[in-house]
Structure formats: structure tokens, C-alpha cells
Amino acid sequence: MGKTSRDKRDIYYRLAKEYKWRARSAFKLMQIDDEFHILKGVTKAVDLCAAPGSWSQVLSKRLYEVDENAKIVAIDLQPMAPIPGVIQMQGDITSEETANRVIEHFSGEKADIVICDGAPDVTGIHSLDEFMQAELILAAFNITSHVLKNDGTFLAKVFRSRNSSLLYAQLKKFFKHVYLAKPRSSRQSSCEAFVLCKNYDPPAGFVPTMKRTQLDVTDPAELSADVIDGFVTCGDLSGWDSEQSYSLDIETSYPKGSEKDASNQYEFKDVVQPPTEPAYKEALAMKKMGIFSKLEHDLEKAHKLAVAKEGAERQEKSQEEKGNIGLDDKLVEGIESIVLDN
């Protein structure tokens, strides 16, 4: 496939490069904000699992346009390239020390909003991926309970499943309103959605802790799915379709419908900010050195040799059963040499 193939079939990936967003997920946060106005009046924001930084870019753009004194803290285990106006912390969201450092950056005050677009490295085993994502949301909530002010907002990615209602019911104990949002830029074929929790109001006597392993629900009646205030699809039919392929000569603007000029022609662009320290960095270096190709060649050769030996042994056994002399060793050596030469 050519370099432009993904630009054709993923319009939001292409638009992200056109408008200097670090990832297509920037459009997801913008569309949720356009629908729910979650950034209105926000002066202190926390972005969990922030790398590569597209949601922090959106926060920076939208908050500083209204209040130049706004503060944004971005946290991730991986290092992240700098973003103007964003305080970056390389740390663990399951650590209470990280929570205390966030509050220090806000001069002892708490955040108006906490957002989290984090997700595990998916395995393809759906039930396992759902479990790991739920554990990540729990970790995000634990630190949120330390740094979010009363009446604040929490937004996190979820993987929808038949057991999702339990998570929504649990969050409903801590927030007055819980919505499930599906931005238009999120593919319909994906189980991804975003749980939006507004008006943080923890139960009386609730003590934040990083050691919580579950969000307790004491009343079984609370487990019904009707605790969600609504499932909202963010975006309208005039926008771009994340499932559709587009030709390269279309107008690359957001939102769709602005005037086209001669300078707005297709031009391939590299990603805005590649990963600074990816977990697969060593694997990429090995691939460039051709180590994987050599391993593949050696494995293929070993497989051919094993198959040849197995065939020779079957032939020898067959001859022995017929009372013939065993297969000549020279014939076996000849088979091995043919396989190894190939």
C-alpha cells in the first residue's frame, strides 16, 4: 500500500495531519465538547494518559482562548514532546505522589475537569481487553477522586460490553449525571465510547484512596442500565464519516463546508508528532537491522528440514515393515543438503 492509502480511508487521520493535531483523537474531544460544553468555565484541567498529546492540544487551544491564566497538567508514563502552555508530568496515575504533584501545580486547588483517553494495548481477546480497560478507568477514577473538585467533570474512554451497565452504575454513585457519548470521529465498528460524568458528588464519608480495587455498589437495584442519562452520538450528518473512504482531491477542511481555494489541494504530510519513546522502539530497531527477516528465514529452513526428516523416517519405517533394509544414510544426507540449500 502507498503512503496515501490511509489518507483516503481515514479522513480524520488525514485532517489531524492537515491541522497539526498529534492524533485523530483530537476530533473526539472537540465533538464531545461541542455537544456537552464540558470545557465551558474550566480554568484547571488534567489530562491522564496524555501521550502523544492530542487532547492536551485541544485543551490548550480552547482554554487559553478564553482565559490566558488557565492551567493544564498532562500525565503519562511515556515522555511526551512539549506543548505550549501545558505542564507535563511523566508519572504513574496509580501513585498518590502524582496526585499531590498535580494539586501543587494548581496552587493547592483542585481541577475543574479530568479527562482520560487511555487504553491498553489490545490483545484481540475482547473480554480481556474490556477487563483491562475497566481496570484503567478505575485507576483514572482513583486519582480523579484526589484531584477533582466537587461539581467537577470526568471524561474517560470505555469499551462497551454487556457488563458496561455495572461500570455506569458505579460511577453514578459519585456523579449526579452519567452520559455515554459516541463522537462521530469514533468508528461505528469500534466498541469504543466515552463515559461523561458531570457534577462530582461523592457519598458522605467517602475517603479517596489509590488502593481501591472496585467501586462498591451496595444496592443491587442500582445495577440497572437506566442509571445512564443517555447515549449521545456527537456530530451531525453533514460532517465527515469515519467509516468512509474519500478521494484525495476533496476539500480538507473541518468542519465540512468552508470555501475551497487553490492552496487547499492534497499534499501528503507526515504525522505531526511521532512517539518520543515508544514501548516497541527496540522492535523497530531490530526490524530495520533485518533481524526479523533472518529469524523468519531460519525458522522456515528449520521447518523444511523437520518436514523432510519426518518424511524420510516415515519412508524408512514403511520399508522396515515390508522387510526391506532401512533407508540409506546417504539418502537422508542428500535430502538435508537439498533443503538447506533452498
Automatic annotation (TrEMBL):
It catalyses: cytidine(32)/guanosine(34) in tRNA + 2 S-adenosyl-L-methionine = 2'-O-methylcytidine(32)/2'-O-methylguanosine(34) in tRNA + 2 S-adenosyl-L-homocysteine + 2 H(+). Transmembrane segments: none annotated. S-adenosyl-L-methionine binds at G53, W55, D76, D92, D117. Residues 310-326 have a biased composition (Basic and acidic residues). Its EC number is 2.1.1.205. Keywords: Cytoplasm, Methyltransferase, S-adenosyl-L-methionine, Transferase, tRNA processing. The active site is at K157. One of its GO terms (biological process) is cytoplasmic translation. One of its GO terms (cellular component) is nucleus. The keyword tRNA processing applies. GO terms for molecular function: tRNA (guanosine(34)-2'-O)-methyltransferase activity. Residues 21-200 form the Ribosomal RNA methyltransferase FtsJ domain. Residues 307-326 are annotated as: Disordered. It is found in: Cytoplasm; Nucleus. Belongs to the class I-like SAM-binding methyltransferase superfamily. RNA methyltransferase RlmE family. TRM7 subfamily. Methylates the 2'-O-ribose of nucleotides at positions 32 and 34 of the tRNA anticodon loop of substrate tRNAs. HAMAP family: RNA_methyltr_E, RNA_methyltr_E_TRM7. This is Putative tRNA (cytidine(32)/guanosine(34)-2'-O)-methyltransferase.
